[in-house]
TrEMBL record:
Protein name: HmuY protein
Protein source organism: Spirosoma arboris
Membrane-spanning residues: none
Pfam families, sorted: HmuY
Presence of the UniProt keyword Manganese in the record: no
């Protein structure tokens, strides 16, 4: 009997080993640039350039770039961090990471003809990493109009609750990743005085009858329900209009009469993987005709802090974080982004009423910056067949959520919806078609790192 058991055990081990030997090997781990071309216009002095890997490396991995400047001199007209030595830039992908980056800085007060370029080419990568197809990047010291490329967005960690929002400038092949929880309030640079709360964290706010911050205590929050996560229709009254209508912000237009501006209690939100933070009491006043004065404190604090935010017409909003107590950079300049991938509160139905609901993988357009977009079903025209002549019959909308979450499915057949694509017209009139490729393991992607392809349909005249 013991001999039979031993034989059976040996057979089981042999079968297990055979199965292990039959497991398919992992695909090659490729390192490459995000795009083959990028612009650095006259107003931009610095850019962070990334190299992406197919997956994280187990050990620190060196990558070497060959650098070829044309019409511009290293050390006096531009620099990099880390520094270039004999036309070579050495980078290291840290263990456990799937990217490396370097900073390109243009000298101050530098006047260029616009024909200058720098070519960065991947010369070598440490084993087992292999150089991918987009092995060369040309940086042009002028604005470019991309003919299109494929981008994988840097959502950071968190998967469906990815920590980053990503802004994309289609014409420049560029993406900018920003922590979703890096800000609390946005201050409009428009003609009206409007303040938004952070929809990406599920923040909620409510007005008190008081207009003196020092008179607000913890007693004012007793019995106060301030949440967007309880699926109550009442939650919609605690947030800004989800379509982005700035006439419908939960904090109304800031009055020129100080006494009209009430104190608000703000729950900073915990959606999208954000950690819980203490509630804030705040009040916003006008700072002359050009900005805002923010007063804020913790609920139990008896004194408050003040931050001044000046309107800047180059941006849709100026942003403030209560973590830093200061202005923070969030959105790029409004002329330098077209779409934003993020997560945020939108609306759904409970069968009877609309209720607030946090949707991952939202794609918003820069409607305040003049961007419009349209959804096109492939039953009308295919992505490949969509050309300039189709633009005349395309209905573009200045709707923040015209793409929204419509491009993917998380129930039923999970993955990118292949029966539609999108057409985006940027603020200067360039028209691009966009096809989402993947966003989750069900369609060959990675949650938190959606991939899409875009192509120029018509260049602005």
């Amino acid at each position: 009997m013991k001999r039979v058991i031993a034989i059976m055990f040996a057979l089981a081990v042999s079968t297990l080993n055979a199965c292990k030997e039959a497991d398919p090997p992992l695909p090659d781990n490729l390192v490459q640039f995000e795009s083959a071309e990028q612009g650095l216009d006259a107003t931009t002095t610095e850019a962070t350039i990334k190299l992406k890997l197919s997956r994280a490396v187990d050990a620190a991995t060196p990558v070497t770039l060959q650098v070829t400047p044309t019409g511009i001199t290293y050390g006096t007209q531009f620099t990099t961090t880390p520094a270039i030595t004999t036309n070579t830039l050495s980078l290291t992908v840290p263990a456990g990471a799937s990217e490396a980056s370097f900073k390109l800085t243009k000298a101050a007060d530098l006047f260029l003809a616009g024909t200058e370029t720098i070519t960065f080419a991947i010369a070598s990568a440490g084993s087992p990493v292999i150089i991918g197809t987009t092995k060369q990047l040309t940086v042009k010291f002028t604005s470019i109009v991309s003919s299109g490329t494929t981008l994988t967005l840097d959502g950071g960690t968190g998967g469906a609750s990815a920590v980053n929002a990503v802004f994309v400038d289609l014409s420049n092949n560029a993406q900018t990743a920003v922590k979703r929880a890096s800000w609390d309030l946005g201050f409009s640079s428009g003609t009206d005085f409007r303040v938004i709360i952070n929809n990406m964290t599920g923040a909620a706010a409510i007005a008190l009858a008081k207009n003196d911050l020092t008179q607000v205590t913890a007693a004012d929050t007793v019995g106060l329900v301030l949440s967007t996560s309880d699926f109550s229709p009442a939650g919609l009254k605690l947030i800004d209009d989800v379509s982005g209508d700035l006439t419908k912000t939960v904090i109304p237009s800031i009055s020129a009469t100080d006494t009209d501006n009430k104190v608000y209690i703000l729950n900073r939100g915990t959606s999208g993987g954000t950690s819980a933070k203490g509630w804030i009491k705040l009040r916003v006043l006008r700072s002359g005709t050009t900005g805002y004065t923010l007063q804020y404190a913790g609920i139990k604090e008896t004194t408050f802090k003040t931050v001044t935010v000046t309107k800047d017409a180059a941006y849709n909003f100026g942003f403030v974080s209560f973590d830093t107590g200061a202005a923070v950079a969030v959105e790029p300049a409004k002329a330098k982004w077209d779409i934003e991938w993020t997560g945020g509160i939108y609306i759904t139905s409970d069968g009877t009423n609309n209720i607030p609901y946090y949707f991952a993988d939202q794609v918003y357009i820069n409607y305040l910056g003049g961007v419009t977009a349209a959804e096109v079903l492939t039953s009308t025209v295919s992505y490949d067949a969509y050309v300039e002549s189709n633009i005349a019959t395309t209905t573009f909308k200045a709707d923040r959520a015209v793409i929204g979450s419509n491009w993917r499915a998380t129930t039923g057949t999970v993955g990118v919806k292949t029966d539609r694509f999108y057409v985006v017209k940027d603020a200067v009139g360039n028209v691009y078609k966009i096809k989402f490729v993947s966003f989750t393991s069900a369609d060959g992607g990675v949650r938190g790192n959606p991939k899409f392809e875009f192509k120029l349909v018509k260049k602005a005249s």
